[in-house]
Amino acid sequence: MLIRGQTLSFAANPFRTPRDACALHHRRGAIRIDDARITAVAPADSLPPTPGEPVVEMGDALLLAGFIDAHAHYSQTRIIASWGRRLIDWLETYTFPEEMRLADPAYAAAVARDYLDLTLANGITTACVYATSHPHSVDAILGAAQPRGLRMAAGKVMMDRNAPEPLLDTAQRGYDETRGLIARWHGVDRLAVAITPRFAPTSSPDQLEAAGALWAAHPDCPMQTHLSEQPEEIAWVAALFPDATDYFGVYERFGLAGPGAIMGHAIHLTARERAALAETGSGIAHCPTSNSFIGSGLFDAGLAETVPVGLATDVGGGSSFSMLRTMAAAYEIGQLRGRPLHPAQLLWLATQGAADVLRWGDRIGNLEAGREADILALDLASTPVIAQRATRAEDLWEQIFPTIMLGDDRAIAGVWVGGKRLDAAGG
Fold first, then answer.
1. What is the pLDDT of residue 424?
2. Of 130, 71, 72, 70, which is closest to residue 102 (Cα–Cα)?
3. HSE-up of 99 (CA within 13 Å, CB side)?
């Protein structure tokens, strides 16, 4: 199959390379797909269809890799946009009560289907998600992702203290249940299991040690947790781990740092933590809508110069399923820090940057021969206000930027997962 439209791919990281050298754009391009993989990306004139080959014409739509969400809580789908709490109050008032509802497998399965419908409608073809402490909540999301052909990672939350009793496991049970999920799901089709200690305050030292041992035994799994989201949280960690150098030092101590570690938020970092993240190769999930909605703070996207950073919705503390809205929020936070992000950097964070954080950067995240054919078509004139602004564009980036800042699911003109076109319901 050939898909034709404008094509955009990355040749280098725009945080580390001049922007005029980081991207490859074909005003009239084509992508060839064979056996669920991209086999060629080129100007359309140099990639004509072979006899009998289907051709999908997307006109002036921009073809790029599908969006990748590096950090989300699918279990919080139905509490998104809840009013007026900061992190710890948010957990106690909204998150924990909702996660207790997912003790019902039928409810968990319904939430999983809703979550995937909403993410696909917004062009997200891969996500790394938190489930709840119930193992069947991981079965629900991965079981819903499998028939759609999605590349997806999910983890059972390991949590043995400082949460409601119905949500608690133990160090041993968290280890055993996660290991069982790894045996059942990890590496099946395009699915993965993430080792998921929620964050240091809700895991005892014994549980963090067990999580580190589990990751050492299964090093190809992602490991996801939270780091330095709010000052109150950091103070809580200091009280719980008085011998730790700092918050990130807790994770280092228990073997929960390194490539494949996904640290959600990472806003209020010390100089030592910034250096240690780079030295260990740990990744960061930047969650801008959540950081503003819950009042957490302003992430420094300049970390992407030295640390793997990917963009994330952080649903449901994050206030949107739209990766376009998430990019817009990242731009606005950059402005508040005096460092506005370029459209190339925003798109990188939502595609190749997030893929690198998940260690899938050789499989997804870019339009390139040999990659899995997860592809998104963006309508750059999806609403009248965007269309009238885009007509004044003097270059590609000025054409794209109005869609980043003003776009929503109406801009998603097509989504292909493993070369198969999907709508929100997966058909």
1. 54
2. 130
3. 28
